[in-house]
Amino acid sequence: MIQPIIQRGTxxxxxxxxxxxxxxxxxxxxxxxxxxxxxxxIKDIVDIDGVRDNMLVGYGLVVGLNxxxxxxxxxxxxxxxxxxxxERLGINTRGDMLKTKNVAAVMVTATLPPFSAQGTxxxxxxxxxxxxxxxxxxxxxxxxxxxxDGEVYAVGQGSLVIGGxxxxxxxxxxxxxxxxxxxxxxxxxxxxxxxxxxxxxxNLRLNLHNPDFTTAKRIADVVNKEFxxxxxxxSDRSNVTVAIGDKSRNKLVTLITRIEQLEVIPDEVAxxxxxxxxxxxxxxxxxxxxxxxxxxxxxxxxxxxxxxxxQPGPLSNGTTQTVARxxxxxxxxxxxxxxxxxxxxxxxxxVQSLNALGIGPRDMITILQSIxxxxxxxxxxxxx
Length: 384
Hints:
By secondary structure, the protein is of the alpha+beta class.
């Protein structure tokens, strides 16, 4: 009798232990910050120096519009561009009055990714330059796209895709989106490559997205630990320099891949970002409040004017007059109390306390600025 009881107890304990293990694993999956710190890949917080995009721009013409193009009288550059294009095609139209409404002058922009080879395609964005109403159904003619050095790096052409539309009648009109801007997927062909060789770099420099001395030092330490050598140095708050050995120069992509997959804990400056127009407040986790007392009350003064008629008495030879009755109501709000914040208050405690006072975003902006003025807010306030 004893042996089966012990076996049942053992099975029950095993089931409990297994359930606890599943609970711990589930908590680790749902709350990864508990199992490990808020680490991020180096790949997500840095850029490789020299590996960058380049902006391209060009001027072109869009044809095939359904009467929604530029008015040539109001857009003389469109008329001159149209005449010049026709002359290049062997058609002389100088001196003639052009009245077409199916053409629009546009600016064409694109981004040339790094290491783009000749013959590859990139997306382009087309935007009106004149008074065209809609680019729907238009086709961009051959447009050279130049870089900041004036050289042509790509040529764009193709049919536009518009994300908006315009519909109008005799008494009303409806516009959705922006019909004067369109895109051409893979609408430009790269004609010139940027002369940049990654293997020619003497050192590998990592540029931080958010410059910070602590984060730069942590990146250097993680890289040195991975390669068991002092190859990385945090030169300043924005850059980490990694020495490229002779053996790694021929395998530079492998070296970059190993560095990008390493994880670090980025540090951040205590900052409060305030958008006064929309009332949005963003506070970092490192924001701290020194000991301070806050009292907030909504003082409301309401003045009501009520017109009344004053009627004279019988046989008084008086006149009827209109007088105004004034009522003044002053209220300071209910439930507003004095809150005392202890030293080292965290972001969560600050928000919970202010919400408990019934303070809205607009009042919270004023309170934060007042706390900063009192020297109790240990953070930077940035108003955008």
